[in-house]
Amino acid sequence: MDLRYGINPQQQAAYVAPVRPGQWPVRVLQGSPSYINMLDALNSWQLVLEAARALHRPAAASFKHVSPADAAVAGPVDDVTAELYSIDRDGVGALTSAYLRARDADPKSS
C-alpha cells in the first residue's frame, strides 16, 4: 500500500505490506493514509481485537499519533450522546454503541 508520506509530512512517501500477502486487517475507503495513520489503524485493530476477546463484547477504539484516544465496549448509549447524533438510543446495535461510546470519551481527538 502506498502511503501519503512517512512519519512527518515533509518526508517522502512510505510503503507498507501485510505479513501475509492480500490479508490486511484494515481497508482504506477514501483518501490516502500516512504512515502514522496506518500505525493508528493497526494499533486500534489490535486493541479492539484484544478487548472484544477478553470482554466478550464488541469493542471500538481510535488512536491519535500512535496513542489511544478512545476505547469502549458495547453497552447503553446515554441520552446526551443519542441526542447529539440524532439516534434512537434503544435501537442502536452493539457495534454502533461501542463506536459511539468510544468516540464520546474524547471527541476532539477522535
Describe the structure in brief.
By secondary structure, this protein is α+β, with helices and mostly antiparallel strands. The protein contains three helices and two strands, in the order αββαα.
CATH architecture of the domain at 35-105: 3-Layer(aba) Sandwich
CATH superfamily placement of the domain at 35-105: AICAR transformylase, duplication domain
- Helical content stands at 25-40%
CATH class of the domain at 35-105: Alpha Beta
Number of helices: 3
Structural class: alpha+beta
| CATH topology group of the domain at 35-105 | Cytidine Deaminase, domain 2
User: How much strand content do the residues show?
Assistant: 5-15%
Give the number of DSSP strands.
2
Order of helices and strands: HEEHH
Mean pLDDT figure: 88
Cα gyration radius (Å): 16 Å
Strands side by side in the biggest sheet: 1-2
Low-confidence residue ranges? none
Q: Whole-Å distance between the termini? A: 24 Å
Pfam families: AICARFT_IMPCHas
GO molecular function: IMP cyclohydrolase activity; phosphoribosylaminoimidazolecarboxamide formyltransferase activity
Protein name: Phosphoribosylaminoimidazolecarboxamide formyltransferase
Organism: Streptomyces sp. SID12501
Describe this structure in words.
- The protein has a domain of 71 residues: Cytidine Deaminase, domain 2.
- 35% of the residues lie in helices and 12% in strands.
- The chain starts with 34 loop residues before the first helix and ends in a 5-residue tail after the last helix.
- The mean pLDDT is 88.
